[in-house]
TrEMBL record:
It comes from Okeania hirsuta. Keywords: Ribonucleoprotein, Ribosomal protein, RNA-binding, rRNA-binding. Belongs to the universal ribosomal protein uL10 family. Part of the ribosomal stalk of the 50S ribosomal subunit. The N-terminus interacts with L11 and the large rRNA to form the base of the stalk. The C-terminus forms an elongated spine to which L12 dimers bind in a sequential fashion forming a multimeric L10(L12)X complex. It holds the Pfam family Ribosomal_L10. GO terms for cellular component: large ribosomal subunit. This is Large ribosomal subunit protein uL10. The gene is rplJ. GO terms for biological process: translation. Coiled coil: none annotated.
Length: 190
């Protein structure tokens, strides 16, 4: 028994919502996976803020046709597809899928779509190797902290050097007066 029109409209709305929240979508052939294995994949993706959806290619085709960012996915819509919607931690989600693939050896990566481009498996692996958002933020924070520390040390040195200079002024004035006095005495004695 097929889905009702209302159920299909609801599924289409869910797909569109997932696409609108995603930075990258992967298409994998899930042929041969059990319900427990698909549940395992979904569970692995959950901590990364990503999700896995099994939908009819026709529904996905309708969803991507309206959005230029996702239209390249139309080339991948054949066979038994599961769609991975990667939202927050892209690298972590790709790694989670790769670990799942190694464990089950039942899925086949078909391709990915990001910012209107069709991606190969190698391109997706390259994205997974990029530092995570948290790692980049930590590096930026470290660099900013380093700059602030150097600035504080430099600013702290200014008053110290100024105080040393001010302390040196009376001694320099005394030496200058003494030198002038000695010169005048030599001039009077000659």
């Amino acid at each position: 028994m097929g889905k009702t029109k209302e159920q299909k409209q609801e599924m289409l709305a869910d797909i569109k919502q997932n696409l609108s929240e995603s930075q990258l979508a992967l298409v994998v052939d899930y042929h041969g996976l059990s319900v427990a294995e698909i549940t395992d994949l979904r569970r692995r993706l959950l901590p990364t803020g990503s999700c896995c959806s099994v939908a009819k290619n026709s529904l996905m085709g309708i969803a991507v046709k309206e959005d230029a960012n996702w239209q390249p996915m139309e080339q991948l819509l054949a066979g038994s597809n599961a769609f991975l919607f990667l939202k927050d931690d892209i690298g972590g989600a790709i790694k989670a899928y790769q670990e799942f693939q190694k464990t089950t050896k039942k899925t086949e990566f078909k391709g990915g779509v990001m910012e209107g481009r069709l991606l190969t498996q190698d391109q997706v692996k390259a994205i997974a190797d990029l530092p995570s958002k948290e790692e980049l933020l930590a590096k930026v924070a470290g660099a900013l902290n380093s700059i602030a520390t150097k600035l504080a040390v430099g600013l702290n040195a200014v008053p110290t050097q100024l105080a040393t200079g001010i302390n040196e002024v009376p001694a320099s004035v005394n030496r200058a007066i003494k030198a002038i006095s000695e010169k005048e005495q030599q001039g009077d004695g000659a």
